[in-house]
C-alpha cells in the first residue's frame, strides 16, 4: 500500500485529530509527524478528556499518560505527567533524546521543562472542576461504561462535553511507514499515581513495520492484562485481518472478565501494512475515525456484548 496514506484514530475526537494528521500526511509527510500533530489537536481541545482539560485523579490532580512509536521499533512514553500541555511531544522527546522509553511523574516533568515545554498552571478546566466536585459527593471509583454515549463526564453533568478519555492514532504515510500515538488523562478519579495502558508500549500502542499497528482505549487495567495492542499485532502477523484481530483480542478480555465484562468498555483499532483498518469493542458505543483523504469518516464500531 505504499503511496496510499491512511489514518485511523479512536472516538469522534478523531475527526479533528485526523484533520491535523492529514495536513502532514496529505502532502507526503512522515507518519510520525502526523500521529504527533494529530493527537496534539485533541490534547489542546478543552472539554475533551485528553490533555490538561481532562478529569483529575481522586486527589484533584490532572495526570497525563502518552506514548509514541515509529516504524523502526523506536518508542517513548510519559506517565503521570502533570502541568504539561502536550504529553505526546514529551513522549517523542523521550524516544528521540534519551536512552529510555518511559519517564514518569516528577522525572518526566523535569525532563519536559528541561526540553523547553512550559509548565502550565495547576488548574482544572471548568467542566473537570464541576465533575470532580460532583464525584467528591460520593467519592466512589467506578469506571463508567459508554461515557461516550452520555456526552458527559463520568458522574458529571449530563449534556456536558463529550467524554473520550483517550485518543490513539495509527497512520501509514506515502512511503509505507507506519507509526502510532496514544494520549490520555486516564480514567477519571483514579488513584493518585495510577498508570493505565495508554503510555505502555505493547498495551496501549504497538507498531511492527512488518505487520502493522494497533492501539487501545477503555479500561486500561484490562488492556494491560492481555498486552492488548501487541496481541492484536501478533494476531495480524498470524494472518488475521485488522478487524478479526481486534475482535479476537476483545474476545479474550471478555473471557477473562466473565460476567464482569458488562461493567467495562475496551476497544481496539488496528492498521495493517496493506493499509487495511479494523476496530472492535466490547460494548456498544465505541466509534472511530478513518481518513484516506482530507475528509475524515466517522464510523460506529462493531461490538461483542449485544
Ligand atoms: C486508561 N485507556 O487510562 C485509558 C482510558 C481510556 O477511554 O481509554 N478511556 O485506562
UniProtKB/TrEMBL annotation:
Keywords: Signal. SUPFAM superfamilies: N-terminal nucleophile aminohydrolases (Ntn hydrolases) (SSF56235). The keyword Iron-sulfur does not apply. Pfam families: Asparaginase_2 (PF01112). InterPro entries: Ntn_hydrolases_N, Peptidase_T2, TAT_signal. CDD domains: Glycosylasparaginase. The keyword Signal applies. This is N(4)-(Beta-N-acetylglucosaminyl)-L-asparaginase. It comes from Hymenobacter negativus.
Amino acid at each position: 500500500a505504499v503511496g496510499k496514506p491512511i489514518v485511523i484514530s479512536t472516538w469522534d475526537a478523531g475527526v479533528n485529530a485526523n484533520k491535523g494528521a492529514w495536513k502532514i500526511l496529505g502532502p507526503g509527510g512522515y507518519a510520525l509527524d502526523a500521529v504527533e500533530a494529530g493527537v496534539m489537536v485533541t490534547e489542546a481541545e478543552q472539554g475533551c478528556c485528553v490533555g490538561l482539560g481532562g478529569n483529575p485523579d481522586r486527589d484533584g490532580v490532572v495526570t497525563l499518560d502518552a506514548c509514541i512509536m515509529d516504524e523502526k521499533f523506536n518508542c517513548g512514553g510519559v506517565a503521570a505527567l502533570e502541568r504539561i500541555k502536550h504529553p505526546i511531544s514529551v513522549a517523542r522527546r523521550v524516544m528521540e533524546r534519551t536512552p529510555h522509553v518511559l519517564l514518569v511523574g516528577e522525572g518526566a516533568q523535569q525532563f519536559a521543562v528541561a526540553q523547553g515545554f512550559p509548565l502550565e498552571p495547576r488548574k482544572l478546566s471548568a467542566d473537570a472542576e464541576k465533575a470532580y466536585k460532583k464525584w467528591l459527593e460520593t467519592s466512589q471509583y467506578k469506571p463508567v461504561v459508554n461515557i461516550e454515549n452520555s456526552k458527559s463526564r463520568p458522574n458529571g453533568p449530563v449534556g456536558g462535553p463529550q467524554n473520550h478519555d483517550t485518543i490513539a492514532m495509527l497512520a501509514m504515510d506515502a512511503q509505507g511507514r507506519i507509526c502510532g500515538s496514544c494520549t490520555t488523562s486516564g480514567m477519571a478519579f483514579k488513584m493518585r499515581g495510577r498508570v493505565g495502558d495508554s503510555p505502555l508500549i505493547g498495551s496501549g500502542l504497538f507498531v511492527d513495520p512488518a505487520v502493522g499497528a494497533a492501539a487501545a482505549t477503555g479500561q486500561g487495567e484490562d488492556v494491560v492484562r492481555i498486552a492488548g495492542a501487541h496481541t492484536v499485532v501478533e494476531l495480524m502477523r498470524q494472518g488475521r485481518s485488522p478487524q478479526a484481530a481486534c475482535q479476537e483480542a476483545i474476545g479474550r478480555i471478555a473471557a477473562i472478565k466473565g460476567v464482569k465484562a458488562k461493567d467495562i468498555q475496551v476497544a481496539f483499532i488496528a492498521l495493517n501494512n496493506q493499509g487495511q483498518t479494523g476496530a472492535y469493542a466490547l460494548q456498544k458505543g465505541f466509534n472511530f475515525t478513518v481518513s484516506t483523504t482530507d475528509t475524515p469518516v466517522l464510523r460506529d464500531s462493531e461490538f461483542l456484548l449485544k
